[in-house]
Write a structure and sequence with these properties.
Elements (H helix, E strand, L loop, with lengths): L2 E3 L2 E3 L15 E8 L13 E6 L12 H12 L8 E2 L2 E2 L3 E5 L2 E2 L15 E6 L5
Parallel strand pairs: 1-4, 3-9
Antiparallel strand pairs: 1-2, 3-4, 5-6, 7-8, 7-9
Length: 128
């Protein structure tokens, strides 16, 4: 599966690099379930291997959940983004887990992502 690095799609570990003293890019596994995968561009893949570039402009801090949500909104969701994001926050009705823990326990949008983190978005709302 391709890695996403900024706006480019790369194969392998082309965007995994670091220099001593510099902030490193962060590689996370992102999964979608309960219907959230249907918001993504076809083929509606449930699992994505994403690399978020470290930003020199943010004081060397790692990317946050806010960075990831914005990345998903701009790069993976192609229509009806309002069903995923509301006021720059994940919409109510979508359960977010970070490494199998409720993201509310981790600081929600402020959580600093680490390489190897697994983030899951699950819709808890179902039609009938």
């Amino acid at each position: 599966m391709p890695l996403y690095c900024g706006s480019d799609v790369l194969q392998g570990s082309d965007c995994l690099f670091s220099t001593m003293g510099e902030a490193q890019d962060v590689r996370v596994i992102v999964e979608f379930g309960g219907g959230t995968e249907l918001l993504l561009a076809p083929p509606h893949a449930k699992t994505h291997d994403i690399v978020l570039p470290a930003s020199a402009s943010d004081g060397g801090h790692r990317p946050t959940m806010s960075t990831l949500v914005e990345y998903i909104r701009t790069h993976l969701i192609k229509e009806r983004e309002e069903l995923f994001v509301e006021n720059d926050h994940v919409r109510p009705g979508i359960l977010v887990l970070i490494n199998d823990s409720d993201w509310e326990l981790e600081g929600e949008m402020r959580y600093e992502l680490k390489s190897g983190d697994r983030v899951v978005f699950i819709s808890t709302l179902h039609g009938g």
